[in-house]
Amino acid sequence: MKLYHFPPSPNSRRVLAVAYHLGIPLDLETIELPKGEHLKPGFIKLNPNHKIPTLVDGDFVLWESSAIMLYLLSKKPGSSLYSNDPKIQADINRWLFWNIAHWGPACGVFIYEYLVKKFRNLGGPDPNEIKRGEDLVHLFAPVLNDHLKGRQWLVGNDVTVADYAVGSFLDLKEVAHLPVDKYKEINRWYGDIEKLDAWKKSAPANFM
Ligand SMILES: N[C@@H](CCC(=O)N[C@@H](CS)C(=O)NCC(=O)O)C(=O)O
């Protein structure tokens, strides 16, 4: 299977970490977003949204990081990353959807304003957008922080795909100025994700 990715992207790093955790070898091809490689016709044919990550398995093409992670998990049934229990799976799915619907867009404001605009030469961060991002982060971070009180991982007693998914944005905490310092449980939990071998292996060699 081939994964088109951009190493610093949280959306692609979470897929890579899950593949490493499951021991699934992937043929990796970097799509350099700063060079606009995601806009080339060959890549748009694979993913008309022009986004990474994108997985190709024979003649099957799959985009959307959560769908890709679930597809990888389907190749290793019974993995503790997803469990076999329908209620645990539903709980994990809840966090995967929450991540894409709420947490990702909240963190995404900062990633766009502080990182993407820099590599696209679009000027400095827009204060109105930063205020919008702060409102979003301070709406959703307390949900995550409160949930983590008394728990090591998001669901059950083991690390699951939900931890890799939701935690992936924290990797950019400093460079994207994510306003999450005051959320102690989130920082404690992400500290544990950082100790995982699969997370370490998925780290970008150098940063944008
Ligand atoms: N919901 C998508 C988001 C993917 C995404 O936004 N990828 C970004 C990089 S982090 C991208 O490829 N951006 C390029 C573009 O939008 O043109 C997923 O989970 O895979």
Task: Outline the structure in words.
The protein is 52% helix and 8% strand. The protein is an alpha+beta fold. The protein folds into 2 domains: 2-74, Glutaredoxin, CATH 3.40.30.10; 86-200, Glutathione S-transferase Yfyf (Class Pi), Chain A, domain 2, CATH 1.20.1050.10. It has a 4-stranded mixed β-sheet with strand order 2-1-3-4, with helices on one face. Helix 1 (10-22) links the parallel strand 1 (2-5) and strand 2. Residues 9, 11, 33, 38, 50-53, 64-65, 100 line the site of glutathione (GSH). The site of glutathione has 11 residues, from loops.
Q: What's the topology here?
A:
Elements (H helix, E strand, L loop, with lengths): L1 E4 L4 H13 L4 E4 L10 H6 L7 E4 L2 E4 L1 H10 L11 H34 L7 H22 L12 H7 L16 H11 L2 H5 L7
Parallel strand pairs: 1-2
Antiparallel strand pairs: 1-3, 3-4
Helix pairs in contact: 1-3, 1-6, 4-5, 4-6, 5-7
Bound molecules: glutathione.
The site of glutathione (GSH) has 11 residues, from loops.
Indicate the CATH architecture of the largest domain: Up-down Bundle
Rg is 17 Å
With strands numbered from the N-terminus, the spatial order across the biggest sheet is 2-1-3-4
Strand content: 5-15%
Helicity, as a percent range: 40-55%
Helix/strand structural class: alpha+beta
The gross shape turns out to be: globular
Bound molecules: glutathione
Unreliable runs, pLDDT <50, ≥5 residues?
none
Average pLDDT level: 96
CATH top level assignment of the largest domain: Mainly Alpha
Largest sheet: 4 strands, mixed
The helix-strand sequence is: EHEHEEHHHHHH
Give the CA-CA distance, first to last residue: 26 Å
Assembly annotation: single chain
CATH topology label of the largest domain:
Glutathione S-transferase Yfyf (Class Pi), Chain A, domain 2
